[in-house]
């Protein structure tokens, strides 16, 4: 019963009234219940769960389980890829095409270079400015004017 109570607190519906125990994650895109035998790991079988619960020495309250779950989710969110936002003025843009935004920049030693920013990374604002969204793995064309 303790397991069911904690599962319920995590929006996991557990039904063990029939031959097979089934699980359904409520509030998700999951529409079909999953049998314990179809889970990839045997430790989720009802018999194995009972055995494990009996061996557990540390007991957590429902509130503690929910808090630990939320902490885990927040750690995962922090680890996800972050986006960097930049704002460009209209006069900083050399050319705008359907596929990309072309920006000319000054680099070290009086050198000029052109950067092509894909349109998927650009939002044109009503005031004429451009909001650029850059992720760690994004790639851009960089053309140095002095290179052949």
Description:
It is a single chain. The protein is of the alpha+beta class and 148 residues long. It has two domains: 2-79, no CATH class; 83-144, no CATH class. Helix content is 24%, strand content 33%. It contains three helices and ten strands; from the N terminus they run H-E-E-E-H-H-E-E-E-E-E-E-E. Strands 5-6-7-10 form a four-stranded antiparallel beta sheet, with no helix packed on it. A three-stranded antiparallel beta sheet has the order 1-2-3. A three-stranded antiparallel beta sheet has the order 4-9-8, with no helix packed on it. A hairpin with a 3-residue loop joins strand 6 (100-107) and strand 7. Helix 1 packs across helix 3. The radius of gyration is 27 Å and the shape is elongated. The relative contact order is 0.11. The model has no long low-confidence stretch (mean pLDDT 75). InterPro entries: LtrB_central. Residues 82-147 form the Group II intron-interrupted relaxase LtrB central domain. This is Relaxase/mobilization nuclease domain-containing protein. It comes from Lactococcus lactis.
How many H/I helical runs? 3
Choose one word for the global shape: elongated
Helical content, roughly? 10-25%
Total domain units = 2
Calculate the mean pLDDT score and round it.
75
Please provide the ordered H/E string of secondary-structure elements: HEEEHHEEEEEEE
Major sheet: order of its strands? 5-6-7-10
Proportion of residues in extended strands? 25-35%
Work out the oligomeric state of the chains in this entry.
Answer: single chain
Main sheet characteristics: 4 strands, antiparallel
Count of individual beta strands: 10
Detail the poorly predicted runs. none
Classification by helices and strands: alpha+beta
Distance between the termini: 73 Å
- Taking all Cα atoms into account, the compactness measure Rg is 27 Å
């Amino acid at each position: 019963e303790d397991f069911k109570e904690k599962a319920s607190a995590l929006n996991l519906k557990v039904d063990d009234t029939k031959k097979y125990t089934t699980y359904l994650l409520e509030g998700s895109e999951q529409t079909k219940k999953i049998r314990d035998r179809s889970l990839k790991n045997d430790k989720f079988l009802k018999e194995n769960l009972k055995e494990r619960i009996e061996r557990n020495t540390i007991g957590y309250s429902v509130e503690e389980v929910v808090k630990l779950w939320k902490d885990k989710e927040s750690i995962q969110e922090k680890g996800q890829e972050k986006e960097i936002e930049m704002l460009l003025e209209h006069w900083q843009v050399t050319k705008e095409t359907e596929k990309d935004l072309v920006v000319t920049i000054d680099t070290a030693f009086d050198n000029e270079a052109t950067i092509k920013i894909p349109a998927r990374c650009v939002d044109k604002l009503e005031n004429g400015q451009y909001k650029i969204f850059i992720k760690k793995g994004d790639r851009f064309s960089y053309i140095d004017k002095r290179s052949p």
